[in-house]
Structure formats: structure tokens, C-alpha cells
Specification:
It contains 8 helices and no strands. It has helices at residues 2-20, 26-31, 35-78, 82-88, 96-111, 127-148, 152-184, 189-244. The N and C termini lie far apart (87 Å). It is an all-alpha fold. The relative contact order is 0.15. α1 crosses α7 and α3 packs antiparallel against α7. The longest helix has 56 residues, at 189-244.
Amino acid sequence: MAGIGIGVGGGLEIVQDLSARVIDSPIDMILGATLPTKIILTVLAAFSLVSWVLIIWKFRELRAVNARADDFVFAMAGANGLVDLNDALAELDDSAFRRVFREGIAFFSELRPGALETTHVGDGLSPTQLEALWLVLEKSLSEEKDELAHGLPWLAIIGSVSPLLGLMGTVVGVMNSFIGITSQGSANIAAVAPGIAEALTTTVAGLAVAIPAVIAYNHYASRLRLFVGELEGFASEFVGTLAREGRL
């Protein structure tokens, strides 16, 4: 009975605090919120900060990646064969295309030493060696994809968890409203308004955090798929160029 009395007393104190509040602005509503609501809003604020840092970081990273890819494509269009392209890449900044190209050239040079320095068409690669070359290129493509995908899982997590935190705050606010109705014995606006206001605040906050994160994740994931597709196309073109120049 003592435990029940303490629980009821604690609930009544919360209700008294809620009913005694005068809400003149959203700031007053947040500052005067109950402890569970403040904790949820603090976590959502931290999620929002992290998500915007990731959004800005990935925007700058993908913009730089696209600029370097354009430089590589321009150099590849002006090169006369793989040897000229290999020399032209020395003047370009490091990029995903350049790293894939370097991996492929280095492994091909190990399989056929001196093949790039001569135009003589000798024995080609065996099926096993050609398959090994493809495996090296695929490994390089996978590493580039993983590197560019850094940060995207966190955007997905924030986008999926934030609405649930907002829903938790909504439940807490509705519970406070029911406590207010029970303590005052009526469902007047003074009893339910503070709890409903807190519920709406956490709901809006959760959606405000989740919406930019979800939009950014979908946009960047789409751009990443397009870029990886371009890398895969370049890997196929690289092997095709080796075959066209009689180096396979």
C-alpha cells in the first residue's frame, strides 16, 4: 500500500506540474516538458546534428568524386590506348577510376611482364588468368563501393529510428493526458492540453529529423548505384581494350 501511495503521489505531482504550466510559446513548452520528453527531444536533437553532418559530408564527397570521374573520362577520351592513358593519369588527382585502372594494369603486368611496352601480339592470357584479372577488378570495385558507402547506414538508422522515438514521446504525452483526466475527474482542456502538446512536439521533432535523413539516404544511395555501374562499365571496357589492342 505504501508503494501504491508513493506511485500515485508521484503521478499527481507530474499532473500538478503539467496543469500549473502556462504555455505561451513552443520554447516554454519544451523547457517545461517532463523529464522523459526532454530526454527524447535531446536524443532527437543529437540525431539531427549527426544526420546533417553526414548529409553535408556525403554531398561534398560525392561532388568531388564526380568531378574526378569527369577528369578521368576526359583523359581517357584523349588517350591513344592504355599506355597513353597510363601516362596521362600521372597528372590527375587520385580517383576511384584511377585506382581501379591501376589495380588492373598492375595485375596484368604481373601476368604478362613487358606486354604494355610492346606492340607485339604474343600468347594471350589463359582462361584462368583472365578470370583472375576479373577477380582483381571486382575486388577493387567492391572496395571503392564500400568506401563511398561510409556514413550511409547511419542515415538509414536515423531515418528509421527517429519516428519511433517521436512515437514514444507521443505515448508519454498521451499517458500524461490520461493522468490529468484521472486526477481532475474531468476531460477539460486544462487537464489534457499539456500532455497533448508534449505528444505533438515529440511527433513533429521525430519527423523533422527523419525526413531529411531518409531523403538524403535515398538520393545518395541512388547516386552510389549509378557511380558503381559506371565503374563496372569501365572495368569491362578496360578488359575489352586489352583484347582490342591484342594484349590478352
